[in-house]
Automatic annotation (TrEMBL):
Keyword Iron recorded: yes
Family: Belongs to the complex I 51 kDa subunit family.
Domain NADH-ubiquinone oxidoreductase 51kDa subunit iron-sulphur binding per the UniProt entry, residue ranges: 411-456
Listed name of the protein: NADH dehydrogenase FAD-containing subunit
Length: 507
């Protein structure tokens, strides 16, 4: 196995951006290495744009040429030109001029990589994942204290402070008796969401750096990175990252694998799994994990992307809007009826519509589910990428924009998600256990001529207000928002007709 090589100090250099944790396949990097005699070939991580990968980035003298998915003959040509100190602009998707010492991928002005901004995603695809020298580490010099009063909101379903002030959580932990612990929750079985996995695959040492900064501020050396047990390639990758960076960081986490179950990704269910409990279910709150978390200790449970945002706010080039409400950017995976998914980063002034430019659509977009599998259904994406705007539109903040084309049926889509919630909920509370079953049944009854809108809405309100788990509380969201957008379609089904012509009775 070739030892990873630093990319930052090299020019010319050929970067091959692809997922290093995926099962082995021909990325073309071996062809490049066999062809090269003087130019280093460095394998970097994914950029977030799956349609482009493997992406060959040929850099020489402050210019980089982008070559998505070149064949072997093209690779040989790219290497040959680079060894002469030349690029091949005539066959490149783009050529970008940049500071020779840039530590962020120099995004083109057009194409998928130009969508939104690249602040948290900046180093993805550009740095060598397992080489500490490619990163500007912050935790050896400062802890996460300066972020406490920035108003940063937790990001993602796996964060116990999701849509809440992270600094307030930290303040509670510091005020609570006991030895704190940091848990970074990266266990998500829903393949719609690729944000956290992209960060862990592409910039694992940056994530470790952010974990260390948080742990230092909370006064602990105890941290856990909680992964899905089925992600064996990612587990090996992170073990290598920890080994590579252990001497550089003040705190390194312990890797722990959790169950391959959607429910195990909920913040307090993650704590149950980490404690080795047989029954994986969310805890009744209060107390919050910040007061009584892992083994009763005050615990910060954060997602990978929250940690990445903390590190970004600590950096020397932190964004200028760092003190605004809901500071920083938001990451979204654009997926669904597209040729390949893409993970993009949008600022507070960006609309979700901008994300459409990152993917190749398969048919016209009929609707989108924004959030995750239990997100909100909408016809339009003219919504700002902020917590308040998404909440006002009854959409989710979990970071997925799932595009669904004209062949999709709104009733079937809502029914599939209600059935998912009925299957995946923990069963701990009555609204989650019984409410999800009733919701799925009410949708099935539509196919038999009964569309009881008032009953669906009342059940949804009850579940949202009284469920202990997020699955139970959010299960009504795709149903009620789909009805808001497509009520005539629901009524047509009750009359025995599917306007899309694609629906079956089996939800």
């Amino acid at each position: 196995m070739t030892e990873p090589t630093a990319a930052m100090s090299r020019s010319p250099v050929l970067r091959v951006a692809t997922d290093p944790t995926a099962s082995r396949r021909d990325t073309g990097s071996e062809t490049a290495r066999r062809t090269a005699t003087a130019v280093p070939v460095v394998r970097t991580g994914p950029t977030g744009i799956a349609a482009f990968e493997p992406l060959f980035l040929a850099t020489a003298g402050g210019r980089t040429a982008f070559h998505p998915r070149p064949d072997h003959e093209r690779i040989e040509g790219i290497v040959g030109a680079l060894e002469r100190g030349e690029l091949l602009p005539e066959v490149a998707a783009a050529v970008v001029e940049h500071d020779p010492g840039t530590r962020s991928l120099p995004a083109p002005e057009t194409g998928p990589l130009s969508v939104g901004c690249r602040e948290v995603l900046g180093s993805c695809g550009w740095v060598t994942p397992l080489v500490p020298e490619d990163y500007d580490l912050v935790s050896p010099e400062r802890d996460a204290g300066p972020v406490r009063d920035r108003g940063l909101l937790g990001r993602g379903r796996g964060d116990a402070a999701a849509d809440e002030d992270v600094g307030a959580t930290w303040a509670t932990i510091r005020e609570t008796d006991g030895d704190p612990v940091v848990v970074v929750n990266a266990n998500d079985t829903d393949d719609r969401q690729r944000i956290d996995r992209t960060l862990l695959a592409s910039v694992p040492i940056a994530v470790l750096d952010g974990i260390a900064a948080i742990a230092e501020y909370l006064g602990t050396t105890d941290a856990v990175l909680y992964l899905n047990g089925s992600e064996t390639g990612l587990h090996r990758h992170l073990e290598a990252a920890i080994d590579a960076a252990a001497a550089e960081l003040p705190v390194v986490p312990q890797l722990v694998a959790g169950p391959d179950e959607y429910r195990a990704g909920a913040p307090t269910a993650a704590l149950e799994a980490l404690e080795g409990n047989d029954r994986i279910e969310p805890r009744i709150q209060p107390p919050s994990p910040a007061v009584h978390g892992l083994y009763g200790r005050p615990t910060a449970v954060h997602s990978v992307r929250t940690v990445a945002h903390v590190r970004r706010l600590l950096g020397n080039d932190a964004p200028s809007d760092a003190t605004d409400r809901d500071p920083g950017t938001r990451l979204f995976t654009v997926t669904g009826d597209v040729a390949a998914p893409a993970t993009v980063e949008l600022g507070s002034d960006d609309s979700l519509e901008a994300a459409l430019d990152a993917v190749e659509l398969q048919g016209a977009v009929k609707m989108a589910c924004v959030g995750d599998v239990l997100g909100g259904i909408t016809r339009g994406l003219d919504v700002s990428a902020t917590r308040d705007a998404l909440a006002a539109a009854a959409l989710g903040t979990e970071g997925v924009v799932e595009l669904l084309n004209e062949d999709r049926c709104a009733v079937a889509t809502a029914g599939e998600r209600a059935t998912f919630a009925a299957t995946e909920n923990s069963g701990r509370c009555v609204p989650g256990r019984e409410g999800t079953k009733q919701l799925a049944e009410l949708l099935r009854e539509i196919y038999h001529g009964s569309f009881d809108l008032a009953k669906i809405r009342e059940l949804g309100r009850t579940m949202e207000r009284t469920s202990n788990c997020r699955i139970g509380a959010r299960a009504p969201r795709p149903v009620t928002t789909a009805i808001d957008e497509f009520e005539p379609v629901f009524r047509a089904h009750a009359d025995g007709r599917c306007p899309s012509g694609t629906c079956s009775e089996n939800l």
